[in-house]
Amino acid sequence: MSSDHSTDVAVATEESGDQTYAPSPRSGAFWAWTLFGLVVVVGLAWLTRYLEANVPGYFEGTSLEKIAKAIEYPVYAILLGLLGNVVVTFTGIRDRIAAAFRTEFFIKTGLVLLGASINLSVIASAAGPAIVQAILLITGVFFFTWWLAGKFGLDDKLRALLAAAVSICGVSAAITAAGAVRARREQLAYTASLVIIFALPSIFLLPWLAGVFGLTDAVAGAWIGGNIDTTAAVTAAGALAGEEALQIASIVKVTQNALMGLVAVALTAYFAFKVERKPGAARPALGELWARFPKFVLGFVAASVIATWYLGSAGADGKATIGIVNDLRAWFLILAFVSIGLEFRAASLREAGWRPIAVFAGATVFNLALALALASVLFAGFGA
Hints:
Largest sheet: 2 strands, antiparallel
Structural class: mainly alpha
Shape: globular
Oligomer: single chain
Strand order of the largest sheet: 1-2
Distance between the termini: 48 Å
Strand content: under 5%
Mean pLDDT: 79
Number of helices: 20
Order of helices and strands: HEEHHHHHHHHHHHHHHHHHHH
């Protein structure tokens, strides 16, 4: 995926029969429009945080209170981005401000900061069943989704994004996979939209089903953490299921997040050696693999190592610092989700059609079944 937006804004587009040109990247007008675009993105991000903090209070004491509390910032950010998209498209300024939609920069920075929330010592000492579940679940769901997407005739790059999103951690995994396979921006936006659409009902459906099935808190938490594709949604669903369920769900999801780097390495090698390698061509050199590899993954790992060391040495005082980092991470991810909404083009949905939706739905059902089986075995009697 290219991160060079200057080419995008310099290209003429056809709108209502008229040629509309974005300003040249070297002109003063370009920088003025880009600054205005940043104001739009940051303004929508601020509005996202405002809604996240205040909407639950508006519905307190009503029948919608639980729903309002469960809706997290990814939902507000993407919806506001889509609304902003309509406005800037209707006013004809979208191409002029497009250079400010730095989705890749925002989300990669957010993912590096996400590493600070992963305490490797906790995973190593307290999450033995979670590690086993994460490895088996990611492997099984990824290859099932890859196979199913192939049966539906999807492009290999979109297959990789869908498989990573369903099997690991939603949008975060999709952007990691997108960097490894060099997917198109439209494919990433499509995948991110599917993640949000499927994650929302899961917040309420899985805790309810856990009660219907009579699952213990530990099994329910492991099931929730292994299924729902966004960390924010996992937290919301886990809280509805109970305190112990929330703790287990968080450990399971964090463990899956920690495996993103391994998946990035595997996808980079697979696409370089097999998918994009022409018949008879020499094997890619290590330098080419390094060029393809999404470097921010190294930042993610480094942040995890540093945070683990810092928490071990600073004790309780370190949690406040990590809290600040987590808040900064949320800001960058909100900016990314807003940009995804602003970048979204309906034409990409029409081009992809219904097949990716069918694949994502089928993979989600498979994930539900496999995660329930693994959680029931690995977490049976856990904490008893």
